[in-house]
Each structure stands twice: as C-alpha cells, then as structure tokens.
Amino acid sequence: MNDLWSLFFTMQLICYLRIYDTPIPSNAEIYMKEFIKIIEFQMLNPEALIGLFVPGFKLKEFIVGVQNNIVSQDQEASVIGDLMMYILFGGVGLIFLCIVLTLTLIERFRTKLLKKLMDFKAKFIWNGVIRSLTISWFGMLMTSGI
Fold first, then answer.
1. pLDDT per residue over 90-102, tens digit each?
2. pTM for this entry
3. Per-residue CA distances from 107 to 96, 101, 104, 114, 117 (Å)
C-alpha cells in the first residue's frame, strides 16, 4: 500500500512540477508533457470514447451536471444532516471514553486500561487521523480540479 501512495505522490509531483518553473532538459520536458497527458486523461480522450456509445456526449456537461443532476436537494439542505452519522459516532466514542476513564479510577483496572488506551492512541493517531486527512486532502484536490 505504501508503494501505491508513493506512486501517487510522485505522479502528482511530476504532473505539477511545471507550476514552479524549474529548468529541465528539453528531452525530459517532452517526456513529462506526455506523462502529464496520461495523468490528466488527455491522452485517453474519454469524451471521444464515450461518444462512440452515447452520441453527443460532452464531458464538461457531464462533470458540471447539465445532463445529470449530480447534487440532490437533500445534500444541500443541512450540513448537520450530512454530518449526523459522524456526530453520533463521536458522541458514542466520547461516552465510551468517559466510561473507560472512570474505570481507571479503580486500582484493579488502572494499569490494563491505561496501557490499552496508550496503544489505541498510538495506532489511531498515526494510522487513522493522518491517513484520513491525507485522503480528505486528495478528495479536495480532485474535486477542485487541481
């Protein structure tokens, strides 16, 4: 899995290296332009391929939502409604954490529970939060078209 992430990061760096106006040899620039066409799906030309099966297909209209209604009214109604599941899980997790911390006041459970809490904290922070932030950042990049 780490190799896939490394490939993705490397492709992103190569694709947007032109933003920084770095001098590179002309043969490498030609190769990089073709590589960027692959990354940005310009070489594949999905509009022409889909146009074979759906006449009059325009990729821009499909992405923007002219032909298809991508965003429903329910999604725009309330942010709280969209986040209700996360709020519920957070509340249940907070209640569970309070119960566990209350149990640590009892001498018999203290060492075992504190050890388990520290293990959970280490695993959650490095595997859960950082990975979630990375995936959210990629989702934002893909949505904004950067």
1. 899 899 889 988 8
2. 0.35
3. 19, 12, 7, 11, 16
The confidence score (pLDDT) of residue 74 equals: 56
Give residue 77's pLDDT. Answer: 62
Separation CA 30–CA 22 (nearest Å): 14
Let me know if 17 is exposed, middle or buried by CB neighbors in 10 A (0-12, 13-18, 19+). Answer: middle
Residues in the chain: 146
128-144 pLDDT tens trace: 767 777 777 777 777 66
* CB contact at 8 A, 7 and 1: no
Whose CA is closest to 105, among 113, 95, 96, 116?
113
Q: What is the DSSP string of 28-75?
A: HHHHHHHHHHHHTTTTT-HHHHHHHHSTT--HHHHHHTSSS--S-HHH
Q: Which of 49, 69, 71 is nearest to 61 (CA)?
A: 69
Q: What is the pLDDT of residues 17-29, one digit of tens each?
A: 777 777 788 888 8
Alpha carbon dihedral 8, 11, 15, 19, in 10-degree steps, equals 70
Quote the tokens at residue 93. 């997790």
